[in-house]
Amino acid sequence: MDLMPGGMKALNLKKTLLTYSSFISAVRPMYESVMTLAATDEKEPVCIMTIMASTWGKTREICTRNQAILKSAIEGWGVCGTTTTFGDPRRAWVNTILAASGGSGPVPLYPPLSHAISLFPLNRAGSVWRGKGNLMLHTEDGSAFEVGLASSQQNKHTELAPGDPGLGKSVLINTLSEIQISSAQKNLPFIAYIDKGYSAQGLVQLIRDSLPPERKDEAVGIILSNDPEYTRNLFDVMYGAKSLLRRKKNFMSSVLCALCVDTGTGQPCNPGDTRQIINQLIELAFKEYGENNPRLYRASTEDLVDSALQDSGLYEKHDAAWWARSTWFEVRDMLHNAGYIMAAQRAHYQAMPQLPEVSSMLGHTSLRDVFGTVQRDGSNELLLDYIRRALEQGHNDYPMISGYTRFMINPETRVIAVDLNNVAGDKTPAGRLKTGIMYLLAGQIAGGDFTLPQYRDEVLKQLPREYHEIALKRINQLDSGG
Prior knowledge:
- This is IncI1 plasmid conjugative transfer protein TraU.
- Keywords: Plasmid.
- By secondary structure, the protein is mainly alpha-helical.
- Helices cover 46% and strands 7% of the residues.
- It folds into two domains: 118 residues, no CATH class; 275 residues, no CATH class.
- Helix 9 packs antiparallel against helix 18 and helix 13 runs antiparallel to helix 14.
- The radius of gyration is 35 Å and the shape is elongated.
- The mean pLDDT is 88.
């Protein structure tokens, strides 16, 4: 690459010839270009610039490959493009013959100085973590590029790794996680995986093998299965609460609307009406089971709860008539205040509404009065009947969200990988819908609490004071990463 002064001096003869032939339409653009350069030269020097890059190979295939590598390297500057065409191919060929020409053969360029400098590789991207990074990546042209993960110089770091199977996406993602885990920290970072294909399970097992026995629950790998063993009630709310947090209501609404999707269109029938009905249905369910008719406690339903009531002496404090009308919420509060947190959590799960009960409330007067005559688009079927049918089908198709929660995750867990290999759908429209629903559920299992610090005020407002300590401990843990 050469840059020399005297661009307009070199163009002087061409300028004179073009002046006399500017009336020819084919020549007119060249004349206007030279005159523009002449005007520019009065304010900024016009230079002569040549760029020449060459490669070779013993065979045509090697030469073609080297040419592609050279082209990629030059374009890696990020400031110009390249072409393999040449204005005069015979001149290009002659200039490659030994002693056939005194020049190298590039076509001279006549750019203003500022334009010429912009083509030089002077603004190559550099790493802001030089000497302080914890991961070495590379640029598109193969140069090393140091990166610092979870550093104070970034508010957020996002890596998108698309590609066909076998290209190393999982290796890259696992590497990013290992770098953060192996950094000098007292606690493991919070990491949530939603995977399909078991690659994250290996990383979790590696972490567990490195932890002492008392800390192994800090890393958990779950291979999800759509059966009652993995039941997590869709309508669970935060421990200690009776009503909904906004974030949890949005999640419930998203799942229920997904159950109502028409696989032919990819949208719920009457999307606007359906979402309104679903939102009102959720509110009705929690008003019914949280305020009007909370579920009554029944012995022998949860062995852990029964044992805790006996061991704590709480059972003897009330007579049989009181226990006959006591609710699971009251039992939860008693056990919590007595320090039996695990049993109180189980009682809390028993107090929550379930999917079959929620769908049965579609016959509620408040819904029938407003939406009772609304029909599905393109059908005579009533929309409320369609939604009831869709939710009942969801109850049959997804037992893992249709009962009381049995599958609990230790609150001390910090690295969790949920694998969907056994529950993901096929490539049919119905299968893709199933996969989408499973990703929604897996996201809630793996990282449902991650946004909790954003709702700190709402949490403290809705929870009774005796539950604030546990809630604040979790919020502060997530907020600080400690």
